[in-house]
């Protein structure tokens, strides 16, 4: 290994802990003093001098001479690779990408060819198709007289492949032919690194290329029509998370912001991002944790920045090409990225970015268009994406293949419509409590219900709530015409509806709202206060203690169902009782519901069919599922609560120790995000088996957060569940995950 290449390896990996910038500074100064712009404009004598300076940097930091024994150099380079495995950025990268269970990394040692042997040499990186759009055209970058890391590190902004075609036509033709051979062999879009040493082409490396969601879908659809892959293989070529990117909003009207465009860089990763400007990865993470949308602006990104890049809505860099670190990483995550925007001058010390006359300070809003490379002042309006074109074709293949149904968790008619547009086959969970937060009047009526001391007072408050609930249910039934709508009775602890603030404020607000005396309010609040509300007065315990509550909700559901049915809508209501642990609890609630149904049907002179079932979210319910299924017509696993109660981790407090558990490898992933198949999954299997043994027609689904998480969806499909239900945005992801497990 040559000294310069060892040093460059050392720079990249921070061998011996010397920061990259210490070397970069010397190089920049040298170019400045020689009056040249490019590294390659430096002469051999300049480089020799630079090497001496680099050695001095080493000596200053390490207190010893740079080792001249090649074996020692090799040893250090290898150690650096192994050490890089445990660097904070590598740990962060693995955690973001959920790469778990690996023991370490390997080191390959091989001879090098040199792209920096003059103007008949060069180096490049390419994708066999455009990784942003999927277009079937070589997409890459090339640098004459340079080594590979000059391209990927984004230090020099490279030129496109046409440069190579013009100055090294033979090597270029061979490269094109090799790309075709490799695509045919691997049946995928490839990411290739190559070097030309004195006009001779060397293929250095080839792997499956990272791509955006848009690119992934187009490549999969095109490769089917080119006869390169079949539909089943194509289904596996798109990651469920890819769809997430496609379902992000786009700019409502790009032509409307033209006068606000202040710079244009390379369209490195498509999509629209709107956020507040920050200048460091740490700030990006911190602001994001405070719920802010941020745009990370850097001269160039380095692997240390991965955490901030992931936290940011968009990334803007002054340097680096389409295959630079920022671009590749951003595309892999579907983050919008504009790179190589040479019009911007980033001043990290002052926390400003200067673009001509415009100065943008930290915290100011900008918008990025990752498909055009435009940098736009202010917050530009976004519009929701649509499932059309290639994506529609691709999703229709997924739907043909999958066996498990995909429903949505939706609480409003708007959400229900969005879910339907995203391909939901019904609503698997409508959380009725969310409707109570929709307006001040509703919330006030709920509070009157909670504060009521007598049944009469409670009934009077419930009478106020009934019309609100009925009209929401009507909207949802209409939006879901022909599909089942699963409505859950009130579930959360009642104190969640009380005002926030200190006790004095709460009492004064409630006294005004309800007209009750202060001491009455105070005593009621004390009664409602719980040490452990998640395990307290919630779920079916509410409806059993206050039957009039269940009756009001059932009445609103049946009245809405009948009125919609009278208007020609096909309604399929399914009423779900939450937090059941014993068959007696369910029996109690079912009797109330069925009685209300009879009453409403006779009052309105119709009969509709409907189902009553329960959530399975208490471990005991899973174990006595056979007894529960004697009454329940369906089960829906509430895997949020089931996880909470199986692990004994509070959903609200898990954040205190979960990061420690993850970093120590005690848990491989957050069980509230990725289903714990071994424990919680076992309960799901037991309950499904026992439930279906007692009632073979039992419909079984899941409506916890795991319903939209790909690996969990695969588990539910294999466990034989009838459906998963997830947020409307994740419906396409679940549809694809379900298809992938089927192939
Ligand atoms: C669940 O517990 O999984 C569930 C869907 O109910 P919630 O999140 O409303 O408690
Ligand atoms: Mg629950």
**Within the largest sheet, what's the order of strands?**
7-17-16-9-10-11-12-8
- Distinct ligands, ions and cofactors found in the model: phosphoenolpyruvate, magnesium ion
Distance between the termini: 47 Å
Q: Tell me the strand percentage band.
A: 15-25%
Structural class: alpha/beta
Q: In this structure, how is the largest beta sheet organized?
A: 8 strands, mixed
The chain-level mean pLDDT equals: 90
What report would you give on this structure?
The chain is of the alpha/beta class and 743 residues long. It contains 31 helices and 26 strands. An eight-stranded mixed beta sheet has the order 7-17-16-9-10-11-12-8. Mean pLDDT is 90; it is low at 1-13. The structure holds phosphoenolpyruvate and magnesium ion (MG).
Helix and strand arrangement:
Blueprint: H1 3-13, H2 20-34, H3 44-62, H4 70-84, H5 88-96, E1 122-127, E2 139-144, H6 148-152, E3 159-160, H7 161-167, H8 169-186, E4 190-197, E5 200-208, H9 213-225, H10 231-236, H11 240-246, E6 250-251, E7 261-264, E8 266-269, E9 272-278, H12 281-289, E10 294-298, H13 306-311, E11 314-317, H14 325-333, E12 336-339, E13 344-347, E14 352-355, E15 358-361, E16 365-369, E17 374-377, E18 382-383, H15 389-401, E19 405-409, H16 413-421, E20 427-431, H17 432-436, H18 440-451, H19 455-479, E21 484-488, H20 503-514, H21 518-528, H22 540-545, H23 547-566, E22 572-577, H24 583-604, E23 611-616, H25 619-623, H26 625-629, E24 634-637, H27 639-647, H28 658-663, H29 680-694, E25 699-702, H30 710-718, E26 723-726, H31 731-742
Helix pairs in contact: 1-4, 2-3, 7-8, 9-11, 9-15, 11-31, 15-31, 16-19, 18-19, 19-23, 20-21, 23-24, 30-31
Magnesium ion (MG) binds at residues 617, 638, 640-641.
Protein name: pyruvate, phosphate dikinase
Enzyme class: transferase
InterPro entries: PEP-util_enz_mobile_dom, PEP_util_AS, PEP_util_C, PEP_util_CS, Phosphohistidine_dom_sf, PPDK_AMP/ATP-bd, Pyruvate_phosphate_dikinase, Pyrv/PenolPyrv_kinase-like_dom
